[in-house]
Amino acid sequence: MKIHAEPLTKFSTEIFVAGGATEADARTTADHLVLANLKGHDSHGVGMIPSYVHSLLRGNLQVSAHAKIESEHGAVTLVDGQCGLGQVVAKEAMDIAIEKTKEHGLASVGLHNAHHIGRIGTYGEQCAEAGLVSIHFVNVVGHGPIVAPFGGKEARLQTNPFCCAVPREGKLPIVLDMATSFIAAGKVRVAYNAGHDVREGSLIDHEGTPTNAAKTLFEAPRGALLPFGSYKGFGLAFMCELLGGALVAHKTMQPGNERPGVSINNMFSVTIDPVVFGGTDRFASEVEAMVEYMHDTSPIDESLPVLIAGEPEQQRMEERSRDGIPIDDTTWKELMNSAKAVGLAVEQIPTEAS
């Protein structure tokens, strides 16, 4: 089934409002999730709502909480997300980063203790919209590991995203946004709900044997995701753990930390104004020349031209804005159940997608 962005956003907003969020915070969260769907990242779209509602009903997600500045040292700011709606508190943290960067030319913000903050590329885009380069290291704590280190059988890490965004004058930014696992855990969830396998190289079973079966991550005996790029992806994931978690005064996945069964994100971000590094003209010129140089590459497959980071998402957004967002039956039923769980009035719950 397919549903267009606006009715899906409206429904998602109503779920969060019924759960106690303000209209503004609910809309910020819903906009973020639906944008992820529009850009083809269903793993970080509205399919996350059931887990958010579960966390809310257990008392873990604090929908009224906002970003709180814990400490400031010039261009460096430490922010407590207070386990608030991640999409809200992370946006607020990036607002702080943008303001500090405009003042100092370069800034760093550490956000800790935020409920799941969603698609990290959104925050890169937020900074790029302000004309800033940004780099983001993220870790995930609060529940058990699901990613095996290179060479290991057992899970020890989470999917630990990394993002870097570069602004372009009058054009959409370049946005590298990726899990350090071979694929995001949410993509395995989407495949599992739809009854599909995942790509080869994504998973190992509990004995360390490669498998494409999505159920490996959700049914006992559980296996693990693999890092992308073997030891290189593992190395980057480990750095996300240290910088995204330990450096911003919060937890890592080491077993001495409590795992209450909730997805908590920590993020270390560096934001840079190109003005302070020789001005924007030379920077913009070199960026555009490099983009053109990449696009000028002869493709191996004529139907698949070389694309820059962020361009596949732009293409998918055009398609889904026009044709609607696909949602599998299992995910749709889970959304219905989540709406009922927070007491949404029956007449506010769509009977089917369109």
Low-confidence stretches: none
- The count of β-strands is 12
- Counted by DSSP, the helix tally is 10
What percent of the residues sit in helical stretches (DSSP H or I)? Answer: 25-40%
Shape: globular
Rg measurement, Å? 20 Å
The termini sit apart by 7 Å
Quickly give the structural class: alpha+beta
Identify the strand order in the major beta sheet: 2-3-4-11-5-6-7
Helix-strand string: EHHHEEHEHEEEHEEEHEHHEH
Quaternary structure classification = single chain
Strand content: 15-25%
Mean pLDDT: 95
* Biggest sheet overview: 7 strands, mixed
Give an account of the 3D structure.
The protein has helices at 5-18, 23-38, 49-57, 86-104, 121-129, 185-194, 231-246, 280-295, 311-323, 329-341; strands at residues 2-3, 68-73, 76-80, 106-115, 133-141, 162-168, 171-178, 203-204, 210-211, 224-225, 264-272, 325-326. It is of the alpha+beta class. It has a seven-stranded mixed beta sheet, with helices on both faces. It has a three-stranded antiparallel beta sheet with strand order 9-8-10, with no helix packed on it. Helix 1 (5-18) packs antiparallel against helix 2 (23-38) and helix 3 packs parallel to helix 10. It is globular. It starts with a strand and ends in a 13-residue tail after the last helix. The mean pLDDT is 95.
